[in-house]
Design a protein that fits this description.
mainly alpha, 2 domains, 10 helices, elongated
Length: about 250
């Protein structure tokens, strides 16, 4: 009898322990966090997302730069005195032309701000030419990859299209009225000393600086979308750029 009771006790204990193991396994499965499946992206999704990111970046950038002080008060893109005419600036300051120099530099930036009002259509049209080729490489290329792709593909066309807008903007803000007195006095002095006269092409200078500044701002906006979920303002941005953060 004792042997029978002993055997029953062992069987009951083993059964209980086995049940505990099963419960433990179930509890572990229930409490283990599951990793959400990454969204399945098609090439069409990727290109749509990249175009949307650039659309958002361009619109935000133009809105920020095409207003008064959009260039002038933004230290990252502010257009300085032309680099190849710094000697002119130094001499002008020596001659007490501080106000003219300041006004000239301010007006350089006003020209860029004015021209930026025309930039939206130019940039937006260039995006429509993006193909599916290298789409995933651009998406996974890290900060600024989409902007770099856009820059590589469109800079020459943008310069050709943008320059007339800059020329018109320079006339609108009367930039040469502030430049001519400075450069005229400088070149007159160079005639007396035998120094080299300087007269940089302001149209080219402002065009290049304005486009560079706009691309800089587009890249900042693109990187926000890459890093900050709150900057993904549409479903396609959430789907496409959300796939990066889940890798």
């Amino acid at each position: 009898m004792k042997k029978i009771l002993y055997s029953l006790t062992i069987l009951t204990t083993l059964s209980f322990l086995s049940s505990c193991d099963v419960l433990e396994e179930v509890a572990t499965i229930a409490t283990t966090p599951t990793t959400p499946a990454k969204p399945q992206l098609t090439n069409a999704d990727v290109i749509s997302g990249l175009r949307e990111a650039l659309n958002v970046g361009i619109k935000n950038s133009v809105n920020l730069t095409s207003v008064t002080d959009g260039f002038l008060k933004n230290t990252a893109i502010r257009i300085p005195f032309p680099e190849d005419a710094m000697k002119v600036r130094e001499k002008a300051l020596e001659w007490g032309m501080d106000a003219q120099v300041d006004k000239f530099e301010t007006t350089l930036n006003r020209a860029a701000e004015e021209a930026s009002k025309e930039a939206l259509t130019i940039f937006m049209n260039s995006i429509t030419n993006m193909t599916v080729q290298d789409g995933f490489a651009i998406l996974n290329g890290g900060d600024g990859a989409a902007t770099k792709y856009l820059k590589d593909q469109t800079t020459n066309q943008l310069i050709a299209a943008f320059k007339p807008k800059v020329t018109a903007a320079i006339a609108t803000v009367q930039l040469t009225e502030y430049w001519n007195p400075i450069i005229t006095k400088y070149n007159a002095a160079m005639s007396l000393t035998g120094g080299q006269k300087i007269n940089p092409n302001l149209d080219d200078y402002v065009t290049q600086k304005a486009i560079t500044g706009l691309f800089y701002m587009v890249e900042q906006e693109e990187n926000k979308i890459r890093k900050d979920p709150m900057a993904r303002v549409s479903d396609i941005l959430v789907k496409v750029f959300g796939s990066i953060t889940q890798q």
